[in-house]
Amino acid sequence: MKRITAFFTMLTISVAALAQSQNFTLGQSLEIQNSILRNLTRTYVDSLEYDKIMKVGIDAMLSYIDPYTMYFPEEQDESVQMMTTGMYGGVGAVIRKRVGGGVVINEPYPGSPIAKAGLVPGDTIIAIDGIPVFDETSEQASGRMKGQPNTDVLFKVVKGGSRDTVDVVVTRETIHRSDVEYSGIVRDSIGYILTTGFTQGVSDEIRQIVTDLKAQGAKRLVFDLRGNGGGLMEEAIEILSIFLPQGTMVVSSKGRMPNQNQEYYTKEAPVDTLIPLMILVDSGSASASEIVAGAIQDLDRGVIAGAKTYGKGLIQTILPTAYNGTVKITTGKYYTPSGRCVQAIDYSHRNADGSVGAIPDSLTSEFRTKNGRIVKDGGGITPDISVESHSYSRPTVSMVLNGILDDYAVKYRTEHPTIAPVESFRLTNAEFEDFIKYACDQEFDYRSGMQTQIEQLRRVAEQDGMYDTIKDEIEALQAKMQMDKADVIRSKKDEILPLLENEVAVRYYFYPAGPAVSLKYDKQMSECLDNWK
Fold first, then answer.
1. What is the pTM of this model?
2. Residue 312 designated active-site
3. What integer best gives the mean pLDDT of the chain?
């Protein structure tokens, strides 16, 4: 008994000593930081912007811990609100910087203040409240468009069609772009829901949509979470309650604080616990999306299809800081019903798209679903039906990143007052040739991936002094691969045309039109449905 008492005494002393050591190290570090700042204040040769210096220091400190812990000063409070509620005060439009000056209205939201004021895609804003925007980025101009609801903002606008310059007063409103991008009936009486986030209230919207789709005759349901980066865990749980019996444990969490060690259960009555369910995922499906996919898979409630998910099993908590700021801190990890964590083992080393790479079997553990199927941890949710996402060629990606498809869609909108309904809309061959002509006049990198590799080979050969030896072979390969812009675009028509039709349709029918067009060409989903038993 004395030995046990002595052991616990020593343990208590060790814990206390560790805490004292950590507190001493923290205090020492703060003193060093303050000492450096005092020396900078007294002796640095130029004037310093201390608020920016401290923000850089805070950001560097937090990013060293993990990629998700972040600080938001008071002036970024709107970003925090947008992140949690999907709402902000503004005019409701996507804008782009126009070459030559101004910002072009790229995509108004349906029913938004900017749409009510009669502004359309192709109209160019050249001043906001009397201040020109020519030297501003689109982000800076967007920031000046935002503000308290029920306040006015004055735009000086060059109309895209007439080229007239007019003054337009727009009254800001609370803007909420729904996380549900599209819903409807697709082939074989399958209900389809595409959601891009998990902000406050999305579960109520999805619950109503599921009810409506069933009333329209849906016999099966596809819930598309591809590219959905997550959001509120509470919304993920509420979405699961639509498909699972009330009182089902769907996720658990573990963290440093006692209140982070919890199990979470569905609370609401379900809409349908039997309708066949498919969850579509890819490497962009993260966090709350993985909570939904993991629970559905572990409880054998439906089939997971697509590509492996991102692998983010961390919980963030938003806490207040001094001077009305906020900090988003990683406070725990979440676990699916089988007990696995989808967090990547090493989230600091990922694929180019940020998703987790291949994990050796030796570093993973096996878990069992409700019906005894084997599932593994180690990073992301592995689909039951694996169909890789479509990857785009280098020239297509370059055109998208350079805004060429966006700009052509706006140009098309100014030249065509109307188009066919989105269900039947198609660009003709002549219109695609018109796009080719337009794109050829724009700057973008139209080299293929192989061409860039050949050029890289030539540079390495020159550095190694080997170029003269293989010069003829390299030049022969370059000659075979040589194509002009027009030929490159024509060769990629199958992947460019769906993207272009998507952009054009959105300019007339707003954002729900985009997914409606994309579904016609969605080979990944089509293959997943073909393999759904």
1. 0.84
2. yes
3. 88
